[in-house]
From TrEMBL:
Topology class, membrane: Multi-pass membrane protein
GO annotation, cellular component aspect: lysosomal membrane
Organism: Anopheles arabiensis (Mosquito)
Gene3D superfamilies in the record: 1.20.1280.290
Protein name: Cystinosin
Length: 404
């Protein structure tokens, strides 16, 4: 038995040595052409340097030249210096050489600078032979865009808390649509799952980069933080509904039917993943589409409830104002970036984000009109206690039974 174990150990060790040797050999036989960094920002009229590295076996002199995607010879985004680079093999026929490439901004835009090796070889790895270049008109506009971005991020993040405070001070959720809450929780949960998967899951990220070989992961840390906070805050409001006065309100059958359809989409997507028809990236994309669909319908129940009651009491205007600020600044940032980078396709070519921001702003305008104009007198009467359904009312008038 000891002899058998010893033999097994020897065989296993030999296999490890062979594997390591094979890996080292394959690494040495592959010529790599790569840029660093692979993402840079330049201002029109200014220059910035990137590094081009050639690493691996080289037996003949080669030349590297450059092309710019979405550009013509007479309308380039940057001036590249030098325009070509020659690499001569050393006596060992193994090269590890880096060259500095200067990029001077000529016009605003976003493009990929690609490096090409000539003569080309089947053993050349050019998967990193590109740099994503953003040419901006002004650093000031970049700073303005950053300030606007943080403003809408904070406004949207804090937009949940006025409603939470309103519920607490009134000890009542009468006037707050349960359909809106249910749909909102579903949408934010789907969005959080999508963001977490693309931000943390390595296999999902690898699939995204395989489909977008020169792309960047679209989800940032602030996206994850916002979506997780949104799930928490919405869940907290729902918990308040179990403890505070709520009248006879409940989630309507229409909202339940909509959520059932979305649940079926999730279940079918899961089955497709299990059968190998879908990849996980497709599954999480479907979750993001559910979020988009929810955003398009979630405001309707609250607007209808306000109309039926001829009052906005119970629906925090602070929520509306912060949401309006967030949506407005989100669209403003897109417009600033579109001008600064001359990249209007990011808005009108794929207008989902811009459209959703516009849709939420339009509903917020409706809520503001309802609160300050249409139902102002009704709100004043309720706040005086003459028709106020919460605790501490100064009248014995019967409470309203509200159902969506």
């Amino acid at each position: 038995m000891a002899a058998v174990c010893g033999t097994a150990k020897c065989v296993f060790g030999l296999l490890l040595i062979i594997a390591a040797s094979t890996t080292a050999q394959s690494n040495k036989t592959l010529l790599r052409l790569q840029f660093g960094p692979q993402d840079t920002t330049i201002i029109v009229g200014q220059a910035k340097n990137v590094t081009l590295r050639l690493h691996g076996p080289l037996s003949e002199t080669v030349t590297v030249n450059f092309t710019q995607t979405n550009a013509t010879n007479d309308n380039a985004y940057v001036q590249v210096t030098p325009s070509t680079i020659a690499f001569t093999p050393p006596s060992s026929n193994f090269i590890d050489r880096s060259e500095r490439v200067s990029l001077r901004g000529l016009r605003a835009g976003i493009f990929d600078l690609l490096a090409h090796l000539s003569p080309s070889s089947a053993l050349v790895d050019q998967s990193q032979a590109f740099v994503r270049v953003t040419v901006a008109k002004s650093w000031s506009l970049i700073s303005v865009s950053s300030v606007i971005g943080w403003t809408y991020f904070l406004a949207w993040t804090w937009s949940f808390w006025p409603q939470i405070w309103e519920n607490r001070t009134r000890a009542s959720v009468v006037g707050l649509s349960f359909d809106y809450l249910a749909l909102n929780l579903l949408g934010h949960t789907m969005y959080a799952a999508f963001n977490c998967a693309l931000f943390w899951n390595g296999s999902v990220q690898a699939e995204y980069l395989r489909r977008n070989p020169r792309g960047l992961i679209p989800v940032l840390a602030n996206d994850v933080a916002f979506s997780l906070h949104a799930v928490f805050a919405t869940g907290l409001i729902i918990v308040q509904c179990f403890f505070y006065e709520r009248g006879q309100q409940k989630v309507s059958y229409t909202a339940r039917a909509i959520m059932t359809v979305f649940a079926l989409v999730v279940m079918i997507s899961g089955v497709l993943v299990a059968t190998g028809t879908y990849l996980w990236l497709d599954f999480f994309y479907n979750l993001s589409y559910i979020k988009l669909a929810v955003t398009l319908v979630k405001y309707v129940p609250q607007a209808v409830l306000n109309y039926r009651r001829k009052s906005t009491i119970g629906w925090s205007i602070g929520n509306v104002l912060l949401d309006f600020t967030g949506g407005s600044f989100s669209m403003l940032q897109m417009l600033v970036n579109g001008y600064n980078y001359d990249d209007w396709d990011s808005i009108f070519g794929d207008g989902a984000k811009f459209g959703l921001g516009l849709f939420s702003v339009l509903f917020d305008v409706l809520f503001i009109v309802q609160h300050y104009i249409l139902y102002r007198n009704s709100n004043y009467i309720e706040l005086r206690g003459e028709n106020y359904p919460g605790p501490g009312s100064v009248t014995t008038a019967p409470r309203q039974n509200i159902s969506t």
